[in-house]
């Protein structure tokens, strides 16, 4: 019985990462086809559904609902998608700061979740369903606020070829003024992408020219879990 509980606990914890792997793997295709804003909206809906499923798992007396909810949370948390959208809608002088805030709030959210999970707060036997469902609150806020934001200007210009839509989005985001330099940068990026072959994950792993970069990324990703970022 103890072994079965340990196995179920391990699956419940790890299935989040499996969902995240699948969500991140398909993020490029979905963002090119539907746009980053629409994908983010769908992510928020998926997160709210997942939170509702996990929140009702105790009433339904079903641990399978927790598994399903955790998996859906992993799929909906396409981290590259958030970084891309935040970076692309930010003006050039604030782009680095905007990208860094994504990592900051990601770590802050994990810290708040760990604090809220204490038995004295929401980690008690009666309140843990509320803790499981609390992940739907930020998604609900974003779902309400995101429709007031335009689509990413680079997406409109590079993938849709909508130069007027791109200019309108830039004015809405950055205000009236001369933004031709930013548009020229996007055009240069479009020209570069046209002449550059997009590698699949398997091709990237097999490419010798990127071997050391891959080693560095893997080492950084593994060791960052040991640097105390969650405690900070």
TrEMBL record:
The keyword DNA repair does not apply. Signal peptide: none annotated. It holds the Pfam family Sugar_tr. GO terms for cellular component: plasma membrane. It is found in: Membrane. One of its GO terms (molecular function) is D-glucose transmembrane transporter activity. Keywords: Membrane, Transmembrane, Transmembrane helix. It comes from the Eukaryota. Residues 1-232 form the Major facilitator superfamily (MFS) profile domain. It is a multi-pass membrane protein. The chain crosses the membrane at residues 6-27, 39-60. GO terms for biological process: D-glucose import; dehydroascorbic acid transport. Its main location: membrane. This is GTR5 protein.
